Amino acid sequence: MGMMKSAEPLLDEKAIIAAAEKALSDIAEVRREVSKVIFGQERVVENTLLAILSGGHALLVGVPGLAKTKLVATLGSVLGLEASRIQFTPDLMPSDILGTEVMDQDETGRRSFRFVKGPVFAQLLMADEINRASPRTQSALLQSMQEYHVTIAGQHYDLPSPFHVLATQNPLEQEGTYPLPEAQLDRFLLQVDVGYPELSAERQILLETTGVTEAKPSSVIDAARLIDIQKLIRQMPVSETVVDAILAFVRSARPGHGNAGTDKNVAWGPGPRAGQALMLCARARALYEGRLAPSLDDVMALAEPVLEHRMALTFAARAEGMTVRDVILDLVKQARG
């Protein structure tokens, strides 16, 4: 998966800058529209949008009732994507997600099979409480996230383009949850932690959502435009300094690579997908923040959402009450020097 060699010819610098400036204003417009409906939670909105702009999937983690579902529905409207939603439950079967073969009979009595598509055939799929379903059902979804197609009875069906999954997960302390396997967590470009809103945002939520009318977001771009922006992001040049910083940072989070804190506390570290995620999302974040080139700051701001679900602590570190987040923040501090 070499990300540096783009299949498309690189645009010349002037054309890239012009295209990036157009993307900048589109993204700013998307941000404005989302903020009419989702109050506060700027980091959550930003990281979720960065995952989509970078062409990936995001895992939203937080207790129920923090507007995660509303955020996904809002993004569907604003980005002009066909959205669908699956509520994961312990009895959900893979076919409830992917679709099923049904038998039809015509007037002459001839029988044939017809495939009825499941809700996974959407451009933006909300997988609600993904860790409540059995591992078999989780992996049906996660496989389609990886491969962008579904195979039913030996037949191949391509998923729509673009295809993004925003999954929500309850914190693991909650009853009746199956943790997602590590290899499957790695398929999410970013993990987005959703906390409680700040006081001023919560006041706004109270006032705006308990009246007779609620603001409705309108569409700012469409699927085709989103795909253009995603292609552009892959073409944005990244300076040598930023590439080196990404590599150094990801490697510092792996035991056995010369970082004493990591060696002591980390059981296993992030694989190459973490570097790829930083490389893509740093470019998307630059545009999101109104800049034309990614900086070291972008890399450090993304360290947590990119690495948090891609590493695990040793038993000893967990026993001391450390969290993966503590370790990442420590590495960020060291990297900033």
Topology (SSEs and partners):
Blueprint: H1 13-35, H2 42-53, E1 58-61, H3 68-79, E2 83-87, H4 94-98, E3 99-105, E4 111-117, E5 124-128, H5 135-147, E6 149-152, E7 155-158, E8 164-169, H6 182-185, E9 190-193, H7 199-209, H8 223-235, H9 240-252, H10 260-265, E10 266-268, H11 272-288, H12 296-307, E11 312-313, H13 315-319, H14 324-336
Parallel strand pairs: 1-8, 1-9, 2-5, 5-8
Antiparallel strand pairs: 3-4, 6-7, 10-11
Description:
With 337 residues, the protein is an alpha/beta fold. The chain folds into two domains: 1-235, 3-Layer(aba) Sandwich (Rossmann fold); 238-337, Helicase, Ruva Protein, domain 3 (Orthogonal Bundle), CATH 1.10.8. Helix content is 47%, strand content 15%. α9 packs across α11 and α12 (296-307) runs antiparallel to α14 (324-336). The longest helix is centred in the first third of the chain and has 23 residues, at 13-35. 37% of the residues are buried. The model has no long low-confidence stretch (mean pLDDT 89). InterPro entries: AAA+_ATPase, ATPase_AAA-3, CbbQ/NirQ/NorQ/GpvN, ChlI/MoxR_AAA_lid, P-loop_NTPase. This is MoxR family ATPase. It comes from Ciceribacter ferrooxidans.
